[in-house]
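thread from #wetlab-drylab

HS: before we spend reagent money on co-crystallization trials with heme C, can we at least see a predicted complex? here's what I'd submit
DV: go for it
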Amino acid sequence: MPRLTATAALALGLLSLASSAAEPDPAARGRYLVAIGGCNDCHTPGFAQQGEAIPEQDRLIGAAVGFSGPWGVSYPSNLRLSAHQASEEEWLGKARRNGLPPMPWTAMQAMSRDDLAAIYRYLRALGPAGSPAPAALGPGQPIPTPHFVFVPQPPTSAKTSLR
Ligand code: HEC
């Protein structure tokens, strides 16, 4: 029995070594989290349309195409600049606040500290680029940029009986 336990312990040890060896770079985890979190769809201009064709060095620089809704107009922040200009602690605070839609704030708040820190390190590794996104606008203000209208529209045909 003791031999079996020792073998099991060795196997476990090797397993954990293997997983830490597979991911030595904290920024690599950040890259992965950004990919599965869909962050590029909003924070990289044109990504929703062109996807992987946009080179990594041009990503996450924010967008001057706004999202217009009852909250006014929000613009996806330039994450490369926001991480460059903040300490890890400050950036975690910005990432966990409750800002404007359609940023998935609750997803950020559900993320572990380590995961959020890995995203910060990835952004720092990419380095600063681009210019700041336009400031958000309040409801009813004139909108000087292109923008998506993020408001439910009425149907354009009779209801189909899918359900
Ligand atoms: C559906 C669009 C959308 C998606 C997807 C999205 N964001 Fe955002 N994000 C925004 C918008 C819009 C803002 C600006 C909100 C505001 O003005 O309050 C923002 C703001 C932020 C901020 C605040 C930056 C600062 O300096 O204050 C952080 C951090 C952030 N996003 C990180 C992420 C990360 C990481 C992901 C992926 C897990 C992500 N976002 C996915 C739209 C999006």
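DV: The chain has a mean pLDDT of 88.
HS: ok that's useful, forwarding to the group
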